[in-house]
Amino acid sequence: MLDARLSPRERMLLNAIIELYIATGEPVASQAVARAFANREGLSSATVRNVMATLGESGFLEQPHTSAGRVPTAAAFRFYVEQITRSGRVAAGAEPPAELSQARRDQIEDSFTGVGSTHEYLERTSHVLALLSHGLGVALASSTIGQILEHIHFSRLGSGKVLAVLVTQSGAVQDRALALSRELSHLELETAARYLNENFRGWQIERIRAEVVRRMEAEREVYRQMLASVDELCSKGALAAPEPTHAIFVDGIANLIAAEQDRERLRQMMLALEAKQRLVELLNAYVDGRQQEVRVIVGLDQASPAMQDLVLIGAPARLGGENLGTVAVIAPTRIQYQEMIQAVSYIARLSERILETPST
What we know:
Number of helices: 13
Low-confidence stretches: 89-98
Number of strands: 10
Distance between the termini: 45 Å
Order of helices and strands: HHHEEHHHEEEEHHHEHHHEEEH
Oligomer: single chain
């Protein structure tokens, strides 16, 4: 909830201070705020100083040095973000709000040209968000995405034995030796692999064998011999689901390095970011794949005390009603919130348009 302790004047000035700080990166002096409101009656430098003092006592502003201006605290940024999201609740599945310019939309869509798989979409997303935010772009595949077929290949190992090489859309490769109850020729293996790759690329692995059985019943006479070979391979474990994985794509660490001056805090922050499992836990904790709203979390102390001045803006990406993964930005709190919230929302929604949903 918006802080009820703040008067309309205090809210107006706090917003102005936050926006000045985002624009300049420097502590904001009362004179700068007074100049911004020079034409507003009752907002002299003395009035502004008094209001800033009150905001400091309320925990919204802090003074880095005795003679310096004021800097917004994490509470102030949370207040600012809540106003943005309350004024037009941002949902990842909704039409992109008007605040995201057509030029920015075109730039985003051009960046995804040629993307045709979940792996490519997530990898490209981390890069695009890093460029847009000047922070860290992160894309996390859901645990089920690791079990989507990209490609399968069969080769003979000897009498009654076949090697199945399964590649998932997360990039995982699984080799499995199969002991068959009947001999399959090289041609039969090639035909089976081609049938699976052409018909089931992009399908969840656990759905494929059930569909093969269904097609065998429906098309038994036409495809009896070929489908029988496919079913033999599947029944022996060629398409056994691999262990769930969390593929994560990260881009833009150099952006955060350039923005951080404190060497020790930078070292601690890098340790937290390089531990990808910590990032997985962070995204899973804050972004719910069952919801569609963009989440904005100011202050990432949970990951590391050194990340207290970072913000996470994340949203679930979906495909055919299923959770595809999470796309997010991790950046300094001086980020352009309005634009980045809309950009994350827009990119999350792009997954439905640029990736084909397999037909059943």
